[in-house]
Design a protein that fits this description.
4 helices; rod-shaped
């Protein structure tokens, strides 16, 4: 059958049969021969179920494209959800960083205020200590001056008394001193 069809095509395609002004339904007319060859070709394709095979291949390709599109759509949705998750996490991290910065600023302000208060208290204590030292130094100086004045006065009194005293007044002074001590003791 294949040999017959092949020889029929070979005869139909010869240039000797394709020439001239022949009627349409004649094998001598090239248009008719081409039309018959085309119909035979279509018949062979239908006989071997080529349109079904081509349709099946196109359906498989369409199914694979649809599967790829579905997969791409799923990947896109997953990527969008991941992006939303990362954006949410970034926002949370940014908020946390803002809170940390605000807390650090507040802590620094509190520390500065505490340091100012500590410095003021330290200055107050040092001023009080300095005033106490000054008062103590003044008291020591006054005491030293008094002690020196008393020493000088006692020395001067001793000199005056020694020069002015005779035996009679010395005895009277001793008697007065004994009487004063006796009064104080009893």
């Amino acid at each position: 059958m294949r040999a017959l069809i092949t020889s029929l095509f070979a005869i139909a395609a010869t240039p000797a049969l394709a020439a001239g002004d022949k009627p349409f339904f004649s094998l001598a007319n090239t248009d008719f021969v081409v039309s018959i060859a085309f119909m035979i070709f279509i018949g062979i394709l239908v006989y071997y179920k080529v349109p079904g095979l081509v349709g099946g291949m196109l359906d498989k390709r369409a199914d694979s494209i649809k599967a790829e599109l579905d997969e791409a759509k799923a990947l896109r949705e997953e990527a969008q959800s991941l992006l939303a998750t990362y954006e949410r996490k970034q926002k949370e991290v940014q908020e946390q960083a803002d809170r940390i910065v605000a807390a650090a600023k507040e802590e620094a302000t509190n520390a500065a205020t505490a340091a100012k208060d500590d410095i003021a208290a330290s200055i107050t204590r040092r001023l009080a200590a300095a005033e106490d030292q000054i008062t103590s130094a003044q008291d020591s100086a006054i005491k030293a001056v008094r002690d020196q004045a008393i020493s000088v006065a006692v020395g001067a009194a001793k000199d005056v008394i020694t020069k002015q005293m005779d035996a009679k007044s010395a005895g009277a002074l001793i008697d007065d001193s004994i009487a004063t001590v006796a009064e104080k003791l009893h």
